[in-house]
Specification:
Layout lengths: L1 H20 L4 H6 L7 H12 L1 H16 L11 H16 L4 H9 L6
Helix pairs in contact: 5-6
């Protein structure tokens, strides 16, 4: 379900980027609409994206994303596993193991790349 939601979000972003933002006039947008979207629905979408409140929100979100310097990246490791590993490292350090040995014993040696 998460993959489906992500794919839908990506698709909507691509439609907006390539069929709304790319053109200046409503006529150009309709002429170059994605064929899989019926014209009546695309007209409603253009009307929605053209609302001043929606455009202001979109611009604000774009500005905020541009300010991010460290985007979140976790990969396939969930936070529960990371938290457990951090706790294990902390317990080993408190038990007298040095920092580097505690880290290596829980997470393994550094891998190239």
């Amino acid at each position: 379900m998460e993959k489906l939601c992500g794919a839908w979000k990506k698709y909507k972003g691509e439609v907006k980027k390539f069929h709304f933002k790319k053109y200046r006039t409503k006529k150009e947008m309709l002429k170059n609409r994605p064929l899989e979207i019926p014209e009546i629905q695309f007209r409603k979408l253009i009307r929605y994206w053209s609302l001043s409140e929606i455009m202001a929100l979109s611009n604000k979100n774009t500005e905020n994303r541009s300010k991010q310097t460290c985007p979140h990246r976790m990969g396939s490791t969930n936070f529960g596993i990371v938290r457990k590993q951090l706790d294990e490292i902390q317990h080993r350090i408190e038990a007298g193991e040095n920092d580097e040995d505690a880290f290596i014993s829980v997470l393994g040696k550094d891998q190239p790349g």
